[in-house]
Specification:
7 helices; 6-stranded mixed β-sheet; alpha/beta; Purple Acid Phosphatase, chain A, domain 2; 293 residues
Amino acid sequence: METARIILLVLIGGAALCLFYGFFLEPRWIRTRRIEVRFPRSYSPLPCAGKRIVYFSDIHTGASTTKRQLERAARAIRRAQPDILLFGGDLAEERTPVGDEAFRRMVQSSLASLEAPSGKWAVLGNHDVEAPRYRAWSTSLLTGAGFTILENRGTEIDGLSLWGFEDALHGSPSRDGCTVENPFALYLSHEPDWFPKKMPAPGPGIVLSGHSHHGQVTFFGLPLIRPPMGAVHWKGFYRLGGHLTQIVSAGLGTVHIHARFFARPDIVVITFAHHKTKDTAIDVFEKRFFPGH
């Protein structure tokens, strides 16, 4: 009987620790994922030479979002010192108080505090466009904070092509009319499963996605629920053909359940460099873009 009581107390204590960690610790523990993409020395000029690209996604501002939470996320992004800032969608969620002016000013101030000398771009996520009021709210805040929203259109930045797709769950993502012609490109596609299925671009390049939250609340890393269009390519790196690599971010916020368990929030920092003679793991990453080198 005493043994059973001890086991019960251990189980209750372990469950309490997991709940405390999931609701109060991990959502605040933001990881910075640093990616260095190496180009062959024959590739010249180097795209975005000396520039740091920072990608973040899935803030999900809602009724429970506080100024402290937004500042924590903004501080992590500013600490990465972005030259180019990319947002992968889902500023809103189902319970975003779009009519609350004080809340609006709080979110706007946080977004506006993010500086990037070479520009700020964004795509909209499924929560941003699932209702007209959310689209209007997210669009207004992002553009008001200096972001240019890309929906089936692109731009060029210092020898790098950037193309943003419409949301795949509520829109019609497409590269029709694409005029960006630099040999290397970044693609913003909120839902990670859409791009590999449709393969709208041959590469070379990187596809940046979010949406999945890496499962958000997992069984020690094994996702319990995966969202539509985020069930197959839900975490980390994926090779798409021979010339493209997809990076799926865990995002910064939470949705439905405001907890994370073994799915830490993150931002992604990308820099470009020329290839060195010594083979390293990152050279394998390079060969995904330039298999002939």
